[in-house]
């Protein structure tokens, strides 16, 4: 043992880091497994990667991707977020009627499975073949302004988007409610003390701060929705990614490569969404400590060390 | 209104308020003249903060009435019957009353400048440009002109409270309410906030201040109101209430405050000496 010298003040520490032999073992095992997977993917001709890539580029598949999957996700999430925030605000309002309506809505749409909901909505034409738009109870007096053929509508993408959006709103309501409740009561009081009306307080002060809590789970919901658009088939909506790839698979009897094509597309879309989600989180986290930036600096520092 | 000239700026009569059956205010009467600085003293739970929050309707009162500048707060008297005002109209009544909170409550997602221009633009409909010019003046006034684009989380407590004061002043209030504005601050940051408040008082602002800062009460207050158990125990100029209190409860509270103040002064002295010691110890760096 060396005794600390009183004259020599210790300088910058230059110590041996802790060794991690376990990590090297893990890396070796993982590399072997990856090698096995790659080898099987290359050597097993049944994977038929060329065909899978070709399926990915087919026009019906691309149309299904853009319309059913991407547009479906976008549309249903827009409905879901907008209606969900409204439901959350209603749930937190002082008006017992609004609170009750919001509770009943969330209860119903959270209880019905999405697939069952879409299938049921697709059959609404049995109950109401024709939808009259006009004054309530005014049909006899000729107060109908327009008529909608429900059977014709029931397998249109718009209807599917509506179904998914209504279902999503129930989940978004819970997420938005948690976000709004996470904002300190003092924020509302400060806004009120400045003379801001309740609506403006909610819109300008509370919701922007609630977004910080709302965005991450909403990103997850969006990614889940990309996948749930494959349920549109329950409504006989066929312009959708999975149905189209599967159709090619059944037609050509190369089912597995067709499925692989669908999987690859879902991977691509969801990866892009995850990047967007990370960006949104940074945007709405502004002013709340520089945690993400700090983590980034830390990472670059680590990178510079090696 | 014809009564406006007769009334003081704040006129509160027999204000009562209960929380869950617990009566916090038991009939408070208080008049505050224009330009007057009133300090509310009292032990915690005495109802002083609640009363302050009743003035601008952050709490609705159960009994009594409060007028601010001739406006009956929260209600409208239509031919002898009181009608509760809508939230929007209550919001309009609050425009002329500034408030500063113990925990500052700046908007964390907005920069210092955005915090200050928010209400003038959104509530008064002032143009953003005009509001920003005014905001910079106010920042100058509270000694924060160097940080218009900082976020509140990047500021010290004292800086945040000074921005909060500027934010309230941006609405050109007739009355400023301060709810323990220095209680959440580190000892060495209290002075900078009190200085801004002192300047404000000297500028003629009508202020009602809930605080434990006895020095501020002594020097700045025109009148000190001592509350305990939901009633006003005694009131008068600080020379009377603080130096020669009439009631036992006031005396007991003041002697407790003096002890705390001494402990506080010792704590500040320790912090300062520890800091200067640390500075002395620190090796000179290249």
The shape of chain B is globular
Rounded mean pLDDT of chain A is 88
Question: Judging by the overall fold, what is the CATH architecture of chain A?
Answer: Orthogonal Bundle
Largest sheet of chain B: 6 strands, mixed
Counting structural domains of chain A, the number is 1
- Biggest protein-protein interface? A-B, 24 and 34 residues
Number of strands of chain B: 12
Q: How far apart are the first and last residues' alpha carbons of chain A, in Å?
A: 32 Å
Total helical elements of chain B: 9
Estimated radius of gyration of chain A: 27 Å
Query: Which runs of chain A of at least 5 residues are low in confidence (pLDDT < 50)?
Result: 290-296, 298-306
End-to-end CA span of chain B: 71 Å
Overview features:
heterodimer, A: 306 residues, mainly alpha, MetI-like fold, disordered C terminus, B: 286 residues, 4-stranded antiparallel sheet, 12 strands
Describe the structure.
The complex is a heterodimer of chains A (306) and B (286). Chain A is mainly alpha-helical and 306 residues long. Chain A has a two-stranded antiparallel ribbon with strand order 1-2. In chain A, helix 5 runs antiparallel to helix 8 (157-181) and helix 9 packs across helix 10 (198-228). Chain A is flat, with a radius of gyration of 27 Å. Chain A has helices at 21-43, 49-56, 59-91, 96-111, 114-122, 124-127, 150-153, 157-181, 185-193, 198-228, 241-252, 255-284, 291-305; strands at 130-134, 144-149. Mean pLDDT of chain A is 88; it is low at 290-296 and 298-306. Chain B has helices at 48-55, 87-94, 112-122, 128-141, 157-169, 190-202, 214-220, 238-241, 248-281; strands spanning 10-19, 22-32, 37-41, 63-68, 71-72, 75-78, 81-84, 97-100, 175-179, 206-210, 223-228, 231-236. Chain B is globular, with a radius of gyration of 20 Å. In chain B, helix 5 (157-169) packs parallel to helix 6. Chain B is built from 9 helices and 12 strands. The mean pLDDT of chain B is 92. The A-B interface holds A 184, 186-187, 189-198, 200, 204-205, 208-209, 212, 284, 286-289 and B 56, 58, 87-88, 91-99, 101, 103, 105-111, 118-119, 122-123, 151-153, 164, 167-168, 171, 177.
């Amino acid at each position: 043992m060396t005794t600390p010298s009183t004259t020599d003040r210790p300088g910058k520490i230059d110590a041996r880091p802790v060794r991690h032999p376990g990590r090297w073992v893990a890396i070796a095992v993982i590399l072997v497994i990856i090698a096995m997977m790659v080898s099987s993917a290359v050597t097993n001709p049944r994977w038929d990667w060329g065909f899978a890539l070709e399926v990915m580029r087919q026009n019906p598949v691309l149309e299904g991707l853009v319309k059913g999957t991407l547009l479906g996700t976008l549309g249903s999430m827009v409905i879901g977020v907008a209606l969900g925030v409204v439901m959350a605000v209603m749930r937190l309002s002082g008006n017992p009627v609004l609170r009750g309506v919001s509770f009943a809505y969330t209860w119903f749409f959270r209880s019905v499975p999405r697939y069952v909901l879409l299938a049921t909505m697709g059959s609404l034409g049995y109950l109401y073949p024709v939808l009259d738009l006009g004054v309530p109870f005014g049909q006899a007096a000729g107060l109908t302004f327009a008529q909608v053929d429900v059977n014709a509508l029931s397998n249109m993408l718009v209807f599917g988007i509506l179904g998914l959006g209504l279902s999503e709103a129930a989940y978004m309501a819970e997420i938005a409610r948690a976000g709004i409740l996470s904002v300190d009561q003092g924020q509302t009081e400060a806004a009120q003390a400045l003379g801001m009306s309740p609506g403006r307080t909610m819109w300008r002060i509370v919701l922007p701060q609630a977004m910080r809590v709302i965005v991450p789970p909403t990103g997850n919901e969006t990614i889940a929705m990309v996948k749930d658009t494959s349920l549109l088939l329950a409504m006989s909506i066929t312009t959708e990614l999975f149905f189209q790839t599967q159709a090619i698979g059944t037609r050509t009897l190369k089912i597995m490569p067709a499925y692989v094509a669908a999987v690859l597309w879902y991977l691509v879309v969801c990866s892009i969404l995850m990047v967007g989600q990370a960006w949104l989180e940074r945007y709405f986290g502004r002013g709340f400590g520089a945690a993400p930036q700090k983590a980034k600096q830390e990472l670059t520092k680590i990178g510079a060390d090696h | 209104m014809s009564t406006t000239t007769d009334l003081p700026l704040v006129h509160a009569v027999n204000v009562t308020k209960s929380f869950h059956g617990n009566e916090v205010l038991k009939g408070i009467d208080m008049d505050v003249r224009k330009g007057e600085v009133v300090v509310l003293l009292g032990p915690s739970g005495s109802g002083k903060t609640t009363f302050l929050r009743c003035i601008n309707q952050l709490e609705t009162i159960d009994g009594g009435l409060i007028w601010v500048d001739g406006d009956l707060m929260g209600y409208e008297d239509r031919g002898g019957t009181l009608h509760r005002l809508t939230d929007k109209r209550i919001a309009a009544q609050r425009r002329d009353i500034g408030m500063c909170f113990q925990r500052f409550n700046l908007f964390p997602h907005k920069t210092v400048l955005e915090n200050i221009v928010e209400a003038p633009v959104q509530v008064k409909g002032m143009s953003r440009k005009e509001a920003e010019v005014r905001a910079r003046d106010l920042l100058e006034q509270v000694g924060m002109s160097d940080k218009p684009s900082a976020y509140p989380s990047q500021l010290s407590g004292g800086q945040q409270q000074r921005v909060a004061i500027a934010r309230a002043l941006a609405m050109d209030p007739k009355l400023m309410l301060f709810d323990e504005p220095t209680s959440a601050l580190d000892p060495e940051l209290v002075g900078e906030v009190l200085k801004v408040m002192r300047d404000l008082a000297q500028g003629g602002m009508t202020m009602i201040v809930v605080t434990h800062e006895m020095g501020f009460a002594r020097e700045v207050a025109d009148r000190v109101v001592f509350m305990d158990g939901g009633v006003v125990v005694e009131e008068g100029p600080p020379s009377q209430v603080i130096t020669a209190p009439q009631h036992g409860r006031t005396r007991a509270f003041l002697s407790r405050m003096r002890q705390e103040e001494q402990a506080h002064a010792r704590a500040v002295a320790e912090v300062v000496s520890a800091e200067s010691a640390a500075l002395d110890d620190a090796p000179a760096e290249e």
